[in-house]
Amino acid sequence: MLKSLLSLCTVLFITFIFVSHTSCTDEDCEAVVWYEDADSDGLGNPNVSRVACDQPSGFVADASDSNDTGLASTPLSAFDEFNPDAVTISFDGDEVTIVSNGQPNHTSPYWEDTHPLYIEQAFGDHTTPGFIREGSFTVTLPLYPELASSSSATGLGAIGISVHGPPIFNDEEGPNRPFDEPTATGLDYAGAHNGPSGYHYHLEAADVPENTTLSHDDEKLIGIMADGFLLYGRKELDGSYPTGLDESGGHFGTTPHSDGEEIYHYHIKNEFYIGSYVMLFGGDLQGTPNTIL
C-alpha cells in the first residue's frame, strides 16, 4: 500500500513539474500555423507548415501559393506560335520535346527558284551556296527552366529553335571566327543564310516589304533557346524598350504569352552588333543548356 502511494505521489509530482514548466514557457503564447514561402513572394505553401508562437524564418501566415517553387512555367500558349508545317511539339510531364525540319514558312532567296516561296535576293549582295533543305533538329526542354548558378557560353551550331522552324545561331561564323559584316551581306532579309548544317538565323529580320511575318523591332516571339527560356523581339508589350537586362538580354517581366505573370525571358538586345545589323543572340545562356540534336 505504501509503495502504491509513493508511486502515485511520484506521478503527480512529475505531472505538476511538467505542467508548471509548460505554463511558464508558453505563457501568453498563441500558437499559429505558418506556411513555407520558398520563393519569398509573401505567399505560403499550404502543403508545408509549422506551428509556432513566433514566425519562423522563411514562413508566412498566408497559405495561398499554389506554386511555391520559385519557378514559373513556360507559357503553353507560346508553343502555338511555332510553324506547324515545320515544328512538332510534344509534352511529357514537366518536359517539352521540339522537333523541327528546319524549313521556314516565309520567302527567301535560299529556296530553289522553283519553290513557291522563292524570291530574289533583296537584302544582301550575295548568297552562300546551297538551298533550303529538309533537316532534323530535336531538343527536349524543361517546362520550368531555372537560372543556373553560372552562365554557359554558346557554341557553333543550333542554340535555339525559332518559331518559323529554322534554328537560331550565335555570333560566330566558324571556329574562332566572329560573325562579320562581309558575312552579313550574304544573309537574306530574314537574317538567315545557308551553311553546312542548313538554313539558320543569325540576325534580326530587316525592315523591308518582304518581311510580313518576322519580328523587327517589336515584341514578337522569336523562338526558344537551348536552356528553355523564350526569346522575344527588342520591345516590351507596351512598345517600350526593356531596361535592366542582364548581359544576355534577359530579365523577369511579362510577355505576350505569360498572362500577366512575370517570367524570365530573353530579348534581342536593342543595339547594333556591326554596322546596322542587330544580332539575335550573342551572349551566354543563363540557364542549363540542352543539346539540340
Descriptive key words:
293 residues, mainly beta, 2 domains, 2 helices, 24% strand, disordered N terminus
Describe the protein.
The chain has 293 residues and is mainly β. The protein folds into two domains: 25-70, no CATH class; 71-293, no CATH class. Helix content is 10%, strand content 24%. The protein contains two helices and 18 strands. It has helices at residues 2-25, 181-184; strands spanning 32-36, 49-52, 59-60, 87-92, 95-100, 137-142, 147-152, 160-162, 167-168, 172-174, 177-178, 192-193, 200-201, 221-225, 230-232, 250-253, 263-267, 285-287. The strands form six sheets. A six-stranded mixed β-sheet has the order 9-8-14-15-17-16, with no helix packed on it. A hairpin with a 6-residue loop joins strand 12 (192-193) and strand 13. The longest helix is centred in the N-terminal third of the chain and has 24 residues, at 2-25. The chain is elongated, with a radius of gyration of 29 Å. The N and C termini lie far apart (86 Å). The model is unreliable at 1-25 (pLDDT under 50).
